[in-house]
Amino acid sequence: MENYQFEKKPRVLCLHGHATSANILKKELVLGWPQYLLDKLDLVFLDAPFLLQDKVDAHDIFYPPYYEWYQATEDFKEIYNFEECIQYIEANMEKYGPFDGVLGFSEGAIVTASMPGMQRDRVALTKVPKIKFVMLIAGAKFGGVALGCPKLASNAFASPIECPSLHFIGEKDPRILNEEELAGCFVNPVVIHYPEGHKVPNLDAERTETVIEFINKVKKIKMPLQGNSKL
Fold this sequence. Notes:
By secondary structure, this protein is of the alpha/beta class. Helix content is 29%, strand content 19%. It has a single domain (8-223), classed as 3-Layer(aba) Sandwich (Rossmann fold). It has helices at residues 22-32, 35-38, 82-96, 107-120, 176-183, 205-218, and strands at residues 3-4, 11-15, 42-46, 50-51, 67-68, 71-72, 79-80, 101-105, 133-137, 165-170, 190-194, 223-224.
């Protein structure tokens, strides 16, 4: 089977945060990232599989429905329905892929960060091409200081993850230690610090250039030839 370099924009699956939606993450990226940066990626936004039933007050400017990728106990030490979440993601990757990378924010970044390790160990995501890169905004590590670990992801961080990674860490985020811990799980992570809290960052010219450099680097990664499928 022949190899090829990306001929088109990298196709990226985007996973939103807890109690938001695909539409909300799309709007947050449009508001915070320059259009010329967004134009370099083929972004596909996916709603999480579980409709959130609780009342949500966090998004005065965004309308429901709101979703979540999994459920957890109040202290986040027990994670539920994670296997169903990954099966759902894999089915959508088959349907709308092939994908080159995955972007996640907050809860979506937690899920995204675990995917390369599970795929490496062949415990999940075996029906889709290898994830070539991840972009993690305000993420955390399953089994780290703040989170329990679902069984399926129990070995996802057992060894350093060699998948190229771009990490966005907010300097005013109260969960900054979780994000730094996560970045340390990857080999040669690219880290962008931004002067905001737990949110999709507003990127200035310097930070935008760092993202573009990362994109240009991963575009050079060779990957197996795959068929195309469209939304």
